[in-house]
Structure formats: C-alpha cells, structure tokens
Specification:
Radius of gyration: 21 Å
Distance between the termini: 31 Å
Helix content: 25-40%
Structural class: alpha/beta
Strand content: 15-25%
Shape: elongated
CATH superfamily of the largest domain: Aldolase class I
Order of helices and strands: EHHHEEEEEEHEHEHEHEHHEHEHEH
CATH topology of the largest domain: TIM Barrel
Strand order of the largest sheet: 3-4-5-6-9-10-11-12-13-14
CATH architecture of the largest domain: Alpha-Beta Barrel
Low-confidence stretches: 346-351
Mean pLDDT: 92
Number of strands: 14
Amino acid sequence: MKEKLLGKTLSELQETALQLGLPAFAGKQLAQWLYQKRVTDIDAMTNLSKAARAALSERYEVGRVLPAGAVTSGDGTRKYLFPAPSGDRYIETVMIPQYEDGSEGGLARATVCVSSQVGCKMNCSFCMTGRGGFHGQLSAGDILSQFLGLDEADILTNAVFMGMGEPLDNWPAVSRALEVITSDWGFGWSPKRVTLSTIGVLPNLKRFLDESRCHLAVSLHNPFPEERAALMPVQNTWDIREVVALLRQYDFSGQRRVSFEYTLFAGVNDTRRHAAALAALLRGLPCRINLIRFHAIPDSPLRTASPEAIAAFQARLQGAGFTTTLRASRGEDILAACGLLAGKGLKKTST
C-alpha cells in the first residue's frame, strides 16, 4: 500500500524528497502542490521532473479522501459523510454558512466543523457519537481531506474541531493538521480562524496551549463535579476545576480566546444554582460562555431546556459580568448533531 503525502508537514516532505534523491527544496514544492494548488494526482506536479514524479508515484499517493455524499438543510447548513479509513464506517463534516445580517443576501462566513476520530471514547451521555463507541484515529491527511473535499473548500473562512471525536485524544494527528492549516507553506490561515473544542484532556491541553495559537472551546455543561461526571465520565479522570486552573496560567486577554460550551438540559443544569456555580467557577478568567440548545437524540431522557429557562440562565450570567451568547440551532432537519447521520447512513447524496 502506498504512503499518503497529504498530512505531511514541510519538514516531513523535505525528508521525503531527500530519501528519493531529490533536493530539499523539492519538499517545499510538494507542500505548494498539496496545500496551495491542491492537486489530487502526483502527475499534476509539473515543476517536478518526470523522473521525480515517477519515483514519487512508486511509493506515494496524494491521499485525498472524497466525500461519499452530502445532505443540505433548509438553512444552508451542509453535512458531508467521508469514508473512514477502515472503509466500513463514516465520519461527518459540517459546513455552516453565516449570512450577512442574518439573511441569505450574501455569505459572510463559511465555517467547517471537522472530525478528528472515528467515533469517540468519551461516552458523554448527550452525544450520539460517543454512544456509538470508538473505532479508530484519523490521520492528519484524513482531517485535511475534510477541508479540501467540500464543495465550499475555496470559500471557507473558519474551522472548528468540534465534530466527531475528542481532538486532544488524537493530538499527534491534530497537531500536524493544525501546523498545515496555519503555516505559510500550508493553507496559510491565521490561527484566529481556527477553534479547537475539548472536554478537557489535561496533558494534551497543555501541549495545545503551548504549541498552538488557535482559539480554544471547553465543553463544560455542568459546574458541579458530581453532576458533570453523570453527564461526562471524563470528569472522573480530568476534573473541570483542574482544567480551569490550567487555563488561568495563560493569557486570554488579547487576540487568543477561550470559550466554554454549555448545553442546557431541562431540569438538569439550567437552574439558578447552576448559573451561580458556573459564574463562581469562571470568575476572573477572560472568556465567553456559549449557551447551546440541546439537539435531542434518540432514546435519551435529556430534553431541551425551555426558552424561559434559557433566557433566565443567560441573564444571570450576563448580570455576573460574562459575555454570553446563545448559539442558534442549525441543521436539525439534516440530523446535524454529531453522530446522527453517520449512524443512520446517508439518505441523499449530493449532485
């Protein structure tokens, strides 16, 4: 089986060139073809000699993975299914459009929500992906294919590592993908265009904070450790209080941001008591709190909090001095909550 070029960093591509008897600068040419010109075939790398292309083709392939299909929501959200490396499962990637002034008169942003694993180990009770179990890691090339394989690839403005899987549980591949995305020899994106979401895998969270300048989102969902553990078993390994303590060691007062994701469940975490404890936990940390309406999943006792409870919860946090947003629900008609579409299989394919 041929090795994939997609996902290699500049230093790895330079080493690949040297191993084939090519000059080191051929590594940068490879990076340009892969990440800037975005070719899908080695023969398209026309500034390499025919002999060099032949030598590359004997051992390597570009390795782009194409989507199996897509479904489109009435609000413009588009969900793609990509074949997993094993070939018998799918991963999900979502393109979320944001229109100027909330209308469809002009596209202001196109955000890609990418997956980092096939399934997930974390088994959060409100997540369909976790319910399906863990089935393998994605490579950096698999992650980057989710950027390159979308119909909207050329108009993407932002990315969130918030799809299937826990990004910090696959840090070697995710870190390489981030290097490609944010390097001038790669996609050339500013780190400010990328957000990584985590439930708080402490060892790799520190590595991410030290090695990357991308934004961070922490899935919190309950400020009380015992109650959070009932929703998120990871709490028993990495306490959210320790996560917040680590974050207090870093500067989020400038361009780099940290936000906390808080999905509201009726009667579970939407009370005055929870709002007060959340404010106490995060007090003094420059951050944003993103409140999320729960997308119901099959056979779950959890229910979406009422509009009145959500409004009261947001008001209490704002009264405590926190910047708080309520994330709009997007793509519910196409099963946009992670894991739903991959679990059911694709019903409609793109044309």
